[in-house]
């Protein structure tokens, strides 16, 4: 089944967060470096991925910006981005398959690579 509704996005993002939040390598970013308020943060992430994959414009933030300030508190290294990305790919593959699922993986890979490059060339 492919990703086609906001409910699908919510299931994907929730499952992904249930993993990264407790990850031994990158969990600390979400819990200590930039402790997230789930009630506020999760809808932003649903909007982001809905905008990316299903069109629309519910997300209007600047994703790169938040990570720059986080990087200033704890260095975001290539291995952190690798863990983020493999967790994302694993979760997408587990729950969905199809064009949008492929797009979710390629888009994430591009952004993660760009972000990793930006954070590590300061
Ligand atoms: C090591 C990799 C990453 C870690 C540890 C991480 C962690 C976080 C954390 C803790 C926040 C909340 C920051 C805050 O509100 O102050 C955040 C926000 C966000 N992240 Fe990441 N992130 C990573 C990579 C990515 C990638 C690759 C993407 C995109 C594909 C992404 C998309 C976003 C978006 C859209 C937000 C919300 C920004 C906003 O509030 O407008 N993140 N991330």
UniProtKB/TrEMBL annotation:
<keyword id="KW-0349">Heme</keyword>
<dbReference type="InterPro" id="IPR001486">
    <property type="entry name" value="Hemoglobin_trunc"/>
</dbReference>
<dbReference type="GO" id="GO:0020037">
    <property type="term" value="F:heme binding"/>
</dbReference>
<dbReference type="GO" id="GO:0019825">
    <property type="term" value="F:oxygen binding"/>
</dbReference>
<dbReference type="Pfam" id="PF01152">
    <property type="entry name" value="Bac_globin"/>
</dbReference>
<keyword id="KW-0408">Iron</keyword>
<protein>
    <submittedName>
        <fullName>Group III truncated hemoglobin</fullName>
    </submittedName>
</protein>
<keyword id="KW-0479">Metal-binding</keyword>
<dbReference type="InterPro" id="IPR012292">
    <property type="entry name" value="Globin/Proto"/>
</dbReference>
<dbReference type="GO" id="GO:0046872">
    <property type="term" value="F:metal ion binding"/>
</dbReference>
<feature type="binding site" description="distal binding residue">
    <location>
        <position position="41"/>
    </location>
    <ligand>
        <name>heme</name>
    </ligand>
</feature>
<keyword id="KW-0813">Transport</keyword>
<dbReference type="InterPro" id="IPR009050">
    <property type="entry name" value="Globin-like_sf"/>
</dbReference>
């Amino acid at each position: 089944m492919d990703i086609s509704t906001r409910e699908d996005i919510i299931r994907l993002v929730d499952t992904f967060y249930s993993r990264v939040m407790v990850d031994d390598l990158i969990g600390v970013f979400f819990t200590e470096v930039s402790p997230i308020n789930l009630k506020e943060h999760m809808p932003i992430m649903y909007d982001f991925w809905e905008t990316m994959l299903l069109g629309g414009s519910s997300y209007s933030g600047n994703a790169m910006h938040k990570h720059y300030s986080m990087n200033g508190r704890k260095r975001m290294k290539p291995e952190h981005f690798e863990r983020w990305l493999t967790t994302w790919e694993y979760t997408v593959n587990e729950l969905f398959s199809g064009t949008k699922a492929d797009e979710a993986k390629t888009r994430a890979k591009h952004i993660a690579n760009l972000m990793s490059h930006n954070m590590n060339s300061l």
